[in-house]
Amino acid sequence: MEKLSPFYEKQETCHLCQHSFQSTKLRNRFVKLAGRDTDLKPLYIDSEMNPLLYNVKVCPLCGYSFTDDFSNFFAPGTKNELKEKVSGNWKSQDYGKQRTIHQAINSYKLALYSGLIKKEKHLTLAGLALRTAWLYRDSANEEEEKRFLALAAKQYEEAYINEDLTLTAMSDINLLYLLAELHVRIGQWGKAVPYFSKILKKQRESQEKQLIEMARDRWYELRDEMKKNETSV
User: Fold this and answer.
1) I need a surface site. Which of 4, 13, 204, 226 has the fewest CB within 10 A?
2) Which Pfam families does this entry report, sorted A to Z (predicted)?
3) Is 66 exposed, middle or buried (0-12, 13-18, 19+ CB in 10 A)?
């Protein structure tokens, strides 16, 4: 019997140029989760069986890059801008096979650039930036990790202020937790405190007990660290 491959190819159609292309995906049965980091980054038993590597679809013809979270709608003028700024500088490349972590990072950057031009939702852009930071963490590139964590925090703030989360998979508690945790990780502790406070005020009404517990633990850690810094001054 032929051994089942962890990978399979899926037919995709570029939203921008309508070109049909193949994109590699990872079968769920091969993905084994060992746990999560404090910013909810999934930790996989086998680093090569990481579905995040294959989340972004990159059109080999025009370079437009997108995920399932992207809207099919293009605001007036954005298609022409994408063709000028993305396709006009694109040298045909195939991201449709198994990806290295470097290729995956590039795919997220391409999607983030496309999404910014297209004016995708802040929540979508934040998710791209956060996953880019996670991949940089796996690559032990702390400087680039923090740069993209800061970008994710900025986009999540815009989403919290300006976007309706009702029809998304992101709950208020989840978003508040990410805002608190990301600000801790980029060293902006003062900005993290109000978000932790908002979470703890909602703890009685929330059903997300595990996330509340994580927020409480992180808040205690941050509070102790802030006290240590005050006494050492």
Assistant:
1) 204
2) DUF2225
3) buried
Question: What is the separation of C-alpha 102 from the centre of its chain, rounded to a whole number of angstroms?
Answer: 16
d(CA 224, CA 219): 9
DSSP 181: H
Counted residue by residue, the chain has a size of: 233
pLDDT tens per residue, the chain (233 residues)? 578 999 999 999 999 999 999 999 999 999 999 999 999 999 999 999 999 999 999 999 999 999 999 999 999 999 999 999 999 999 999 999 999 999 999 999 999 999 999 999 999 999 999 999 999 999 999 999 999 999 999 999 999 999 998 889 999 999 999 999 999 999 999 999 999 999 999 888 888 999 999 999 999 999 888 888 776 64
Beta pairing, strands 33-36 & 20-26 = unpaired
d(CA 76, CA 64): 17
Is the pTM for the entire model greater than 0.70? yes
